[in-house]
Amino acid sequence: MASKSEIYQAAAVIQSRIADLRDVIANDAELQRRGGVVFLHYTIGANLDPIFELLGKSGNEGLLTGTDVTYIADIGCGNGELSFMLAHCGYKVTALDYSDRYNQSPYIVSQLANKLDLPIAIVDFSVDKPFLMDDLHNSCIFNDGVALPLQLQSFDFIICVGLLYHLKNPFAFIQSLAQMTKYCILGTWMFTRLSPGLIDVEKNSLVYLLDEQELNADPTNYWVFSDTALSRLCRRCGFEVIDKLLVPNNEHGIGTPNRMELGLRGFYLLRSLINTS
């Protein structure tokens, strides 16, 4: 569909255009009435390099640059940067997030879609439970009829980065993904040690439940996984883990569950063992 260089060119274009529109959207009267805010972080900059590194090291770069992928979902889309980048490259993209008192991403993405004039579908739906493709169709708030046609029953590829630790029900979520996509990149915070001085726990199937203010003072942060735990969870939910990439944001090369300065992000390339059509 698009080459690697074309995707990076699209990333630069979209990131620049959204930066130009940020203040316009932030000052939108309806967004202010709803109490929403435009996210400050750029998901393209944080995630595109690791995604391509993971695809490259696993020999699967063609999943984003070949002809087998048309329909893509960006779940937990935030401001929609990844969605718009992929739509700019010609993919049929569904951007999914959930409106609540803290988050107005679906509205923000719909306003940006109008201003960027890019054809994407926008779904406003909580994925913190079991769900089906029909739920996404029924919760679609913006669609040109092409990005998410009614007859579409599964995606070719799903990208979900920065969402899993916000979900109370990760098993139900990942199991639902396995039923509706062929491939998935799942990115989330990981841990290898409970604290810097303790023994490595990466090879143990451990999951850490955060307290309300324990990580970044954000009460919507719940679960942080060890590598073994997340790999096992994906397998039990119906995915094969093709490959993974662990990206520490500190010089120690470790991850702890409750300290941002000792964070570790994991990116997992998954192939569904359920949706094989």
Question: Main attributes?
Answer:
two-stranded antiparallel sheet; 9 helices; 8-stranded mixed sheet; Rossmann fold; 34% helix; alpha/beta; globular; 277 residues
Compose a concise summary of this entry:
With 277 residues, the chain is of the alpha/beta class. It contains nine helices and ten strands.
Q: Which strand order spans the largest sheet, edge to edge or round the barrel? A: 4-3-2-1-5-6-10-9
Helical/strand content category: alpha/beta
Order of helices and strands: HHHHEHEHEHEEHEEEHEE
Which word captures the global form? Answer: globular
Total count of strands: 10
CATH top level class name: Alpha Beta
Q: What fraction strand?
A: 15-25%
What is the CATH topology classification name?
Answer: Rossmann fold
Rg on CA atoms, Å: 18 Å
Number of domains: 1
Are there runs of 5+ residues with pLDDT below 50, and where? none
Q: What is the straight-line distance between the termini?
A: 20 Å
Structure description:
There is one protein chain. It contains 9 helices and 10 strands. The model has no long low-confidence stretch (mean pLDDT 94). The strands form 2 sheets. An 8-stranded mixed β-sheet has the order 4-3-2-1-5-6-10-9, with helices on both faces. It has a two-stranded antiparallel sheet with strand order 7-8. The two termini are 20 Å apart. It is an alpha/beta fold and 277 residues long. It has one domain: 3-Layer(aba) Sandwich (Rossmann fold).
Task: Please give the structural blueprint.
Blueprint: H1 4-26, H2 29-34, H3 43-57, H4 62-65, E1 71-75, H5 81-88, E2 92-97, H6 105-116, E3 120-124, H7 133-138, E4 140-142, E5 155-161, H8 170-180, E6 181-190, E7 207-209, E8 223-225, H9 227-236, E9 239-248, E10 264-272
Parallel strand pairs: 1-2, 1-5, 2-3, 5-6
Antiparallel strand pairs: 3-4, 6-10, 7-8, 9-10
